């Protein structure tokens, strides 16, 4: 089987990340497995749309598009999927750069026709130059990175992580696009889990589907200074709980919390033990890391309880878009909040 053509989608929303956006595109253009095309999908920011269109007006393989759906990351991704011509659609965060063989490792995963998604490993680039001593590796998902506890190598998983992921184009034909109403909307509350919900929906539509993470497909993700603080850590953990409640309400708690059970019963207790051991050995940050893990779990659990109550009362909904050609169709018609 020949290597698949891969379209890359980078969703952008602010001129404050201008240099990061240019770096992300440059890293895609330098791939050892060349991308078929790269889409910059601009989220309701006319000034940024015009500026990027001028920047890449002579770059035939880079296209700049306006988000065709409601504001937010999910609709931006759906816009890119609708325009993509590749056999595979890959997603890269706008403040990340991919290593040279990123797409090559993705492509290798699709040699098996059962594989519907391949994700990679995301490494943090801390604004301060080093990881805060109190920040536990088990919670690197808080800053959009691969966290301690994920298995190494190329392994089968329930879901990939959206900022460094790829899907076979036919996956969206089977399951629809990313759900709006779950994930991020610019700088508002940092919700998430849209890729989790999509992956669960995909495996329901295609029970034979295989989803992989290959830790050789590496990107480096900037962590701004504001996200190195404990206040952001708590806010993001609470938002994750809210999102998980909405996903679990839709797909059922068995699937919606399947991976989280192992994480909370095995990975996090081991992390607390390591932190306490480091504290006894007078290593910097040990006690703080243990405390951060406990706080993160309790905060996420609180968000989950609040989110579950809202979902039962019908106060939280999300919508699934069908992907049709160069447009996102039926955005917002398939209301699914609070129903399984």
Give an overview of the whole structure:
The protein has 340 residues and is α/β, with parallel strands linked by helices. 40% of the residues lie in helices and 23% in strands. It has helices at residues 18-29, 46-55, 73-83, 102-109, 169-175, 194-205, 230-251, 253-256, 258-280, 286-312, and strands at 6-12, 37-42, 62-66, 88-92, 96-98, 115-126, 154-156, 164-168, 179-180, 210-223, 319-324, 327-335. The strands form 2 sheets. Strands 1, 2, 3, 4, 5, 6, 7, 8 and 10 form a 9-stranded mixed β-sheet that branches. A 3-stranded antiparallel β-sheet has the order 9-11-12, sandwiched between helices. Strand 1 (6-12), helix 1 (18-29) and strand 2 form a beta-alpha-beta unit. Helix 5 (169-175) crosses helix 6. The longest helix has 27 residues, at 286-312. The chain is globular, with a radius of gyration of 19 Å. Mean pLDDT is 88; it is low at 326-340.
Structure keywords:
12 strands; 23% strand; 3-stranded antiparallel beta sheet; 9-stranded mixed beta sheet; 340 residues; disordered C terminus; alpha/beta
């Amino acid at each position: 089987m020949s290597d698949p053509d891969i379209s890359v989608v980078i969703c952008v929303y602010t001129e404050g990340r201008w240099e990061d956006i240019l770096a992300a595109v440059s890293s895609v253009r330098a791939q050892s497995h060349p991308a078929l095309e790269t889409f910059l999908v601009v989220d309701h920011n006319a000034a940024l749309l015009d500026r990027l269109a001028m920047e890449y007006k002579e770059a035939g393989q880079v296209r700049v598009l306006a988000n065709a759906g409601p504001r937010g990351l999910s609709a931006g991704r759906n816009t890119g999927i609708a325009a993509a011509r590749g056999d595979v659609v890959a997603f890269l965060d706008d403040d990340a750069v991919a290593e040279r063989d990123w797409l090559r490792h993705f492509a290798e995963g699709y040699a098996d026709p059962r594989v519907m998604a391949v994700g990679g490993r995301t490494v943090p680039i801390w604004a301060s130059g080093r990881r805060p001593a109190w920040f536990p590796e088990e919670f690197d998902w808080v800053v959009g990175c691969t966290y301690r506890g994920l298995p190494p190598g190329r392994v089968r998983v329930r879901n990939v992580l959206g900022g460094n992921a790829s899907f076979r184009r036919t996956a969206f034909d089977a399951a629809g696009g990313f759900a709006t109403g779950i994930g991020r909307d610019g700088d508002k509350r940092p919700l998430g889990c849209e890729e989790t919900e999509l992956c669960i929906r995909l495996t329901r539509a295609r029970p034979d589907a295989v989803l992989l993470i290959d830790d050789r497909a590496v990107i480096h993700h900037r962590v701004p200074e504001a996200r190195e603080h404990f206040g952001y850590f708590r806010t993001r953990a609470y938002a994750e709980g809210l999102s998980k409640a909405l996903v679990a309400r839709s797909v059922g708690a068995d699937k919606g919390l399947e991976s989280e059970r192992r994480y909370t019963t095995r990975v996090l207790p081991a992390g607390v033990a390591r932190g306490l051991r480091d504290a006894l050995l007078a290593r910097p940050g040990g006690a703080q890391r243990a405390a951060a893990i406990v706080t993160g779990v309790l905060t996420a659990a609180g968000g989950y309880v609040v989110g579950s109550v809202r979902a039962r009362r019908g106060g939280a909904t999300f919508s699934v878009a069908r992907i049709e050609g160069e447009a996102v169709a039926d955005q917002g018609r398939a209301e699914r909040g609070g129903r399984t």
